[in-house]
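Journal club prep — side note

Before the paper discussion, L.F. wants everyone to see what a predicted structure for a comparable chain looks like in C-alpha cell form. Sequence:
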Amino acid sequence: MRSYSEDKSNISIRVLLVDDDQNSYLLVRRMLCKMQGPFQIEWAPNYEAGLEAIIRKQHDVYLLDYRLGSRNGLELLQEALVAGCKEPIIMLTTEKPEVDAQAMRLGAADFLSKDRLDSSLLERSIRHSIKQYATLRALRESQAQLSSFMQNVRCAVYMKDLQGRYVYVNETCEKLFHRKFADWIGKTDDELWPKPIAQKFKEKDREIISNKEVLESTEIVVQKDGPHHWLTNKFPMLNEQSIPYPLWWVEQRSTSQNASGLRGRFKRSANRRSAGLARTCTMGWAIT
C-alpha cells in the first residue's frame, strides 16, 4: 500500500484507462503528460482486458469509459468491486445524469464528462479520489482492528446512544448475560433488566452525560446463579464541541461479596486508559 501524503512529485501514479477508442486513450495520455508529477498510464482497449487488468491490482486509479462495445462501464464497475477492487474508479460519461447518478450509487469515486474533460479537471479528480480512498481505507482498517479487539477481549463491552438504547455489545457480553446480539440492539435498560436495576443504570447514565467524565462504580446484577458484583467503568464519547453522544461501558465481574481486591486491580488498569478513553467513549468490561 502506498502513501500519497508525502512528496507527491516523486510518486508515480499508475492509471488504467479502459476505453475502446484509441483516440480517447491518446487524449488522456496527453492530458496526463501536462500534469504535475509523474503518471504512468496503461490502456485496456475492451471490457475483458479492462477487467483482467483490474483484477491484477497493479494500479492506483481506474478510468472507465461508459461505452465499451456490447457492455458498458457500469457493468465493469460492478464486476471490479465484486472482484475486490479497493482503488478508486472514475467513470467517464457523456452528459447523462442518470448514468452519473447510477455510477455513484454503485460505488464510483467520481464521474467526469468526456465532452468537458481537460487536464486540470482530470488531475483534480484523480488526486482527490486517491486521497479520499486512502482515508477510507485507513478508517476501515481502524474499525477492523477495534472490532477484533472488542470481540476477543475477555470483558463485557457495550455501548448505548443518548436515548439509552443499546447499539453495540461484544461477544463476551452476549455470553455472560445469555443474550444474543439481536436481543440487545435497540433495547433500553427498562426492557432488559428488573426495574430497580434498570433505574440505577439510567441514573448512572444521566450522571455521565451531565458530568462528561469517566465514572467508576460497583453494581450488583442478579443472574441465574445469584448476585454478581461488577466494577464498572463508564465514559462518554465527546464530539468536537465536547457534546457526548454514545456511552461506552467497561465492566469487570467479581462473584465475591467483597469486590475491594478486584476494585484496586481494575482501578490501576482503568487509570492507565482513562485519559484517552474519556475523550472518545463510555465503555464497560467484564473479566470472568
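L.F.'s comment for the group: Residues 8-143 form a domain with the Rossmann fold fold (CATH 3.40.50.2300). Keep this in mind when we get to the figures.
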